[in-house]
Write a structure and sequence with these properties.
This protein has 420 residues and is an alpha/beta fold. The protein has 3 domains: 31-212, 2-Layer Sandwich (Nucleotidyltransferase, domain 5), CATH 3.30.420.10; 222-314, DNA polymerase, domain 1 (Orthogonal Bundle); 328-409, Orthogonal Bundle (DNA polymerase, domain 1). The protein contains 20 helices and 6 strands. It has helices spanning 35-47, 92-97, 108-117, 128-134, 142-150, 170-181, 183-196, 200-212, 235-255, 259-262, 265-274, 279-284, 291-295, 297-309, 331-334, 336-355, 360-363, 366-374, 382-391, 396-409; strands at 31-32, 49-57, 70-76, 79-83, 102-105, 124-127. Helix 5 packs across helix 7 (183-196). Residues 1-12 and 416-420 have low confidence and may be disordered. Residues 311-333 are annotated as: Disordered. One of its GO terms (biological process) is nucleobase-containing compound metabolic process.
Length: 420
Amino acid sequence: MTSANPPQPSTSDDPTANLPLLELRDGLSDVIDVESALTETIEAFRAGTGPVAVDAERASGYRYSHRAYLVQLRREGSGSALVDPIPFGDLSALGDAIVEAEWVIHAANQDLACLAEVGMVPRQVFDTELAGRLLGYPKVGLASLVSEVLGYRMRKEHSAADWSTRPLPAPWLVYAALDVEMLIELRNAIEHELRREGKWEWAEQEFAAILDAPPREPKPDPWRRTSGMHRVRNRRSLAVVRALWEARDQIAASADISPGRILPDAAIVEAASAMPADREALQKLTAFKGRGAHRHMRTWWEAVDHARRLPDSELPKQGPRYDGPPPARAWADRDPDAAARLSAARTAVAEIAEAHRLPTENLLAPDTIRRLAWSPPNDVNLDVVTKFLRDHHARPWQIGLTAEVLTDAMNSEAPAKPLD
C-alpha cells in the first residue's frame, strides 16, 4: 500500500530523493518537563481514541545506563507530545492513561525496557519492524518502511545524538517527533498487508510473545564481548581483559558514562596482548596515551597487575561458558549424524521461509534448530518435535509450518564415508 498520490520514480542514485519530505502536521510542541504540563498531557491522551504511537530516545554510546531521555507519543484526538522523563522519574500515570490502547512501537524490544523503567508498560503492542519482517520487506528500519509503504522520506541525521543533552536542540526534537508522526498510518497500512497475505494471526502471536517474554538475564562473562578478543591467545591474557573490563565497568557505572568513552576496547586488547611488566610500560602503549585512559592509569595498572599475579587455577577458561551445542563447524567431525540432521533441518526451514517471504530467523530461531539437531528427543515423531518446539518458545504458527519437516530431518543420517 502506498500513499494516494505516490511520488514519481527517482532518476537519481538515491531512490528516495524525489519522495516528499515528512513534516510535522501540527508543528513542534514544547517539551513537557513540568507537572502541570504532564497532567494536561495525561488527560489529553486519556481522551484520545485508537492506538498510541510510542517511541523513546536513549543515549547509547554516551551513557552507561539505557534509560529513556525522551518519550514521544501521538494519538488521534490527542496530537503529539514530547515528554522529558528525567524531571519526573516516574511516568506511570501517563502509562495508565493509555494502558487499554494498543501501543504502536517500531522495534519494541529496544524500547520496552526503558519505558518500563519509567513506569510505562503496555498490554498490547503492534511492532512495525517485526511486522515488516513478516511481510518480507528487505529493509525494516522506520525510515525505509515509511518510504516504501507510505511514500515519504524521513530525516535520519540525529539518530546517534546524545539524548541526555539538556536543553535538547530544536532540530533534534523535530527529528524525534517525526518518529511518531505517521507511525499509526504505517501500522494500519501494514495490518492491511498482513491480512491480505494471511499473516495477521502470525503477527498477533509474535506481538503477544514480545509482551510474554521473560526479562533478559545477563549473559555470563560479559567481558568476553570485548571487541578484538580473537587476538587474545592465552588464559593469562584473558585474565587481563577480564580485569580491565571489570575495572572500566565500575567506573562507567558510577559516572553513568559509556564504557568505551572511558577506555576503548582496543586499549584493553592491546594491554592483554603486550602484558606490560610495570605501570610505565602500560603508559607507553599507544591506546593508553589518550586523556581518558590516562586519567585512571592507576586503576588500569592495578587491574593488569592483579591479573598477572593470579594463580593458574583462577585464570578464565579459554572458551566462554555455553549450555548449548558446540559450534556447528565442528559437528561433521564430532557427530556426523548430528551434522546431517542440522543440514537437513536448515535446508527445510530455509525453503519454507523463502516460500513465505520470511527471514529464516523469524520463521524459527537458529538456536532452536541447532539444539534439536544436536540432541533430539528419544523416539522422534511429530508430537515429540512439536513439544520440543513449544518448550523452546516457538509460536503456534511457527510450529505449524516447521514441525513436520523437522521431524523428517531428525531422521536424516550422515552419508556413508567414501572408501579409501
